[in-house]
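As noted in the main text, all predictions were made from sequence alone. Below is one such record, for DUF1508 domain-containing protein.
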Amino acid sequence: MGTFVITKRFNDEYKFVFASRKGKTIFTSLSYELKFEGEEAIEKFKANIDLVTFLKFKSPKGKFYFKLLLDGVHFATSRKYTTELRLQKGIDEIVKYAGQSDVLDFSVNDVVFSD
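Prediction:
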């Protein structure tokens, strides 16, 4: 099962990523000024996974990626993939696991392991 991970960007805005069962980032969200906005976006995404649209692209360097649209609005952008097959596997993992995935919040403290 995948996991949503909330973190803080360097500009103090919040983002989240959806990580695969193996811990690899599949997509990264847009920025949110407040943490609860990101949490609400995750819940909306999980509840409306059947309304998500995947737009596939190929970068000038030949890498494949997709953008997620929720209700026609840009929601997140995937990582870059080397092949179309790997891109499709990323999409399949989202469709299969995102609805029941856990949410981890690493935005509170930058130090995970203290001395």
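The chain has a mean pLDDT of 91. The chain has two helices and seven strands. These features were considered when defining construct boundaries for the mutagenesis experiments described in Section 2.9.
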